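#dry-run=false #mode=assembly
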Amino acid sequence: MKDEIASLLSHELEEQEGKAPVESIGLDKVELLGKLRKLFETQPLAVLATQSETAPYVSLVAFASDEKLKYILFSTTKATRKYENLSANPVVSLLIDNRKNTIEDFRDAVAVTAMGKIEPVEDFERKIMENIYLMKHPHLVDFLHSPTNAFLKIHVEKYIVVTRFQHVVEVSV
Amino acid sequence: MLIPIEELRGNSGKLCGGKASALGFLHRNGMIVPPGTCISTTAYNEYVDRTGLRGRILLEMNRKPFEEMRWEELWDLSEKIKLMFARTPLPPEMEKELEAELFRRFGKKAVAVRSSAPGEDTAKTSFAGVHASYVNIRGTPEILRHLRLVWASLWSDTALLYRKEMGLDIFNSAMAVLVQETVEGRSSGVAFGMSPENKSEAVVEAVYGLNKGLVDGTVEPDRWTLSRETGDIKTHMPAEREKTVVAGNESRGEEGTELKNLPEALKKKPPLTPEEVLEVYSLTGKAEALFGTPQDVEWTFRESTLYTLQSRPITTLLQEDRDEKRRWYLSLRRSFENLKELRAAIEEKYIPAMQAEALDLEKENLSATSDPALAEEIEKRAEIYRKWHDIYWEEFIPFAHGARLFGKVYNETVNPKDPYEFADLLSGTEMLSLERNRKLEEMAGRLREKPELLKGLSAFKENKDKEEPVQENETELENETELENETELENETELENETELENETELENEFRKELEAFISRYGGSYSESPEAKEGLYRLLLEMASRPLLPPVAGKKDPDRIRRLKEKFLSSFEDEKQKFAAELLDLARASYRLRDDDNIYLGKIEAELQRAFLEGRKRLEKRGLKEPEIPPARTFREPALVKELTKALCNPAYRPGPEKLPRKPQIPGTAGITKENVRPRQLLGNPSGPGTAEGHARVILKDSDLFDLKAGEVLICDAVDPNMTFVVPLCAAIVERRGGMLIHGAIIAREYGIPCITGVPDATKLIKNGDYLSVDGYLGIVTVLKRRDL
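#status=ok
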């Protein structure tokens, strides 16, 4: 079934060839991380997956990352399911992608799954982390500073990068 | 970002707005306009994008569908947004660029900073008086500060309402701003090239000084009509010339304008000579020739030079309709003077009269009257209630603007982080509802100290439960309640007399008397409802069963209030401090009265209800039952009052079921059982900071209030002051009705309880017993656990 769809797609895509060149992901880690950094800058929202006792739970969050892509920052109010889940189990994954929900996505879209663990933002780094976050999301200043809000960082172990529908590479940071 | 007037072209409307474009056009065609420059919408867009304000506005605007917002909520919204603009500086590079250019052009000269929004002043829409304009501003930092205030006025309550009403785009609007040298005219005014009332005439209106006084309605103008055909003056209606608006004193470094008494010599002399009237009229002619349609022109004379300040098409289309609406918007901001008059009337006339009338009614012994006399009494009371109800809406509610007017002034001068800081300064005053709540807490305290009293009350309650297992209808309940109050309590007392010490009985009697006095003083319709006394007992038991609440700290701290007051007053120069103090005094009265008056009206309402219930009782004695008798809850409805009194006067008369109200039905839902979605997280407006968790107590009818347990979250449609006695028991308040200055929010702030207002469908979606988390900082209520079913 998947193959059937794929064959249909490639036909569609051939016609569009040349309009938007396929993003190529090379072997070089530094180059790849550079591309990811650019991708992250263009995407305000990502899909966060947490784990409840019985099932995974996904939600949209506004995120930002540090220069080295070692950390991904986000914030949530504490009376939420995701906060309850990650308080019990800090292992999470996060999907960042640039899909437009069109057929071209199968050729052009990049989808990155970050895997890591939630760590609290420590006092010594809070100021700089907040700056990073608010540079990208200045309108969330009230949200971030509410006493009911938790500011969190994902310590990323690795990124799984999908291009051209099925080309998948991994990179650890 | 900056485009000088002389460089403006006809197609600059999107960048510079109608006002600036029109002036550019007039300038190019040889008319005299004050020199100036336009700060285009590009600057606005850059500012809101780079500072994140665009996103913050979006988040604030989207708390609730715009169509569902009450104007109070719009007011809150616009105050919040205005403070965002006032507290967010321009990005440094942008500031540098604007500063350099503005300084080069204007130096230290006085300028006007005026709105020129795209879409403003077309033939179909006129935003006259809707957006902000500031005159007599000096120095670049001040120009830039006022620039942000004019930008903010794009989001003022009036501007939002206007756009909403006119069907204009609210979210994608941007604002251009015109900075022009102030021309300190000796006489100024407006001129209509064609009178909106008579197409063959033109109108010239003029005042001494700046035309701000004319435009905002504080100075009455002289008015001339002219024939469009001959250009001759037809009539002159002189004004009672008393005041003039002039620019603030330059030598004292004053900005803005001042309203002054007109010198005696000028009072007798019209602001324009007939020749000057004709000169102004010819200005409208030129403008009409240039634009191709009759124009509405603002002008000013400096010595003998006539300047055009503004020209826009006359909005003849739907003129009346729009004027009507605009008047209403503008009347939302009653002026200080109007409010002062209103206050005097309320404090000196209405409230004493209302109290006296309630007292008179209270004295009547209704059970001793004949049926026809009772019918007459009910009619009389219904009439009195309607009278006060109308006065309440026409006089008392507009007076609430006093607090809002103060809020605006406070926010503009103090620029606080929290847009509702001013409410703390106002709430330092004593409110009747707080006095009542304290009294209630005192009584609960007595119960706590003297468990024997508690026992007496509990025994009474248990007895009642035993003897009256199910209450089928209100008739029975009512009789029983009466019985309880008069007979059973006595029995109880007698019983106790035999077994307990006498002084305990005395204590108990005293306590009961205190309760009666409490009800009489704070009355309200709740205490007159059949279940109310019993409810009050239950509530007192509930209050006594938990430890004494710690005194509310922080908000009411007198030192803090004093500091806030000093902060406010010190923002004003010497003479203006007097005005500021007066305004604060007025606002405090407004804030306090808005709460108290409701309790006074509640008393009148309770007296109508008392007579209505007596009437129902008489009919029941004749053997009538519902639906032949109007239900107890319908006592406010004139048609049903009429049915009741008719039946009282005429024993043969039977109110038919068709005359009685049916349960209200939501249109289109007849016969359909609708399944609602289940709430998880609902959004409202944060109206009292703090967080709390607790079980929901949903108030669907008055008597539900008495079931409230300590630590529950009160979920209601609208808190009215007669309800607020339960507030000290609540962990938090969630209210459907929106607004930061509504009773629920006021009282929650007073007690430091988290509060969220403006949650649509709160009482429908949240169920009794749901376990909630209330976030009073962000305005979020979360259903953590649904009640077990």
